[in-house]
Fold this sequence. Notes:
Oligomer: homodimer
CATH superfamily of chain A: Flavodoxin domain
Largest sheet of chain A: 6 strands, parallel
Radius of gyration of chain A: 16 Å
CATH topology of chain A: Rossmann fold
Number of domains of chain A: 1
Structural class of chain A: alpha/beta
Largest interface: A-B, 34 and 34 residues
Amino acid sequence: MDKIKVLGISGSLRADSFNTALLKSAIELSKEYLNIDIYDISRIPLYNHDHEKKGIPESVIEFKSAIASSDSLLFALPEYNSSVTGVLKNAIDWASRAESPLNGKPCAIMGASGGLSGTAVAQSHFRQIASSVNLICMNVPKLQLRKSKSLFDENNILTDQSTLEHLDKFLKAFREWTLNFINTKN
Amino acid sequence: MDKIKVLGISGSLRADSFNTALLKSAIELSKEYLNIDIYDISRIPLYNHDHEKKGIPESVIEFKSAIASSDSLLFALPEYNSSVTGVLKNAIDWASRAESPLNGKPCAIMGASGGLSGTAVAQSHFRQIASSVNLICMNVPKLQLRKSKSLFDENNILTDQSTLEHLDKFLKAFREWTLNFINTKN
């Protein structure tokens, strides 16, 4: 069968973001069985219902179409101020509107923090948001990286061996998770 | 003494938002003892650490300065997808950065929903975010309006009598809450 088509979404717009780097490592590690494309959400404007009524912005149409044509979504979520980033939530707010491509879509979440939180609170908030828009989140394994600076090398490539092993396990579980829903459709 | 200076922030950018309308009703109801200015957060760009390093955007400098020169903040929070709006979270993410004017600032939160949620989940998420940035939130009374369409008239003015009485109680408590922190400073 064809490789599973995954849309990777990072909640950080920073070029050197650990979360974007984590997505890049996931692409490398799973290239035999997942086809992960990273979607850049930096062009999605602030959600305003009045603008939506005048016409959905091109960048939002593109984003929704990229979601719709993927088998599943892989989120890399930084934690800002004990929640998901405003940037990521804003993208979800747009995507969730009329004919939401999020509805019924399988997803998984992972996160990397510089400190000790491991983005646990952001993941908890995200799970509530996900349930509200009917994204179907994989529960386990969890992937919450702490002290990320020690796990990535100077080129922002994940090199920590035990983390790579855990990411591999996570991605294989995510493949199975996605297949559940693809098979249901066929 | 001078009237207490309050910055009112709506989490919705929609012109006819119930939450913005609620702020306007609060201005009218408390004009003898609060001086509430509504701050429009629509010009704040998506947070990007790389842009921040190049220079903080003018709109963010203005927003932070408006927060810093206020005695307290009054948030009107819609609930989108079981959380605060991405737009509001994004504004908080910017304001919380270096020399955060949110640090130690008293605030109160209110919210209006079209349905039955009363924005309770968004308020719960906001309290976690607020504690993270050391905004000092008033706990009670709560203000969570349900079925807002029945409470506002055709010009989007709050006309429901029992809601007006509750809002009056809420705003007087908010005045006392703010005074606690002003008096501490003097």
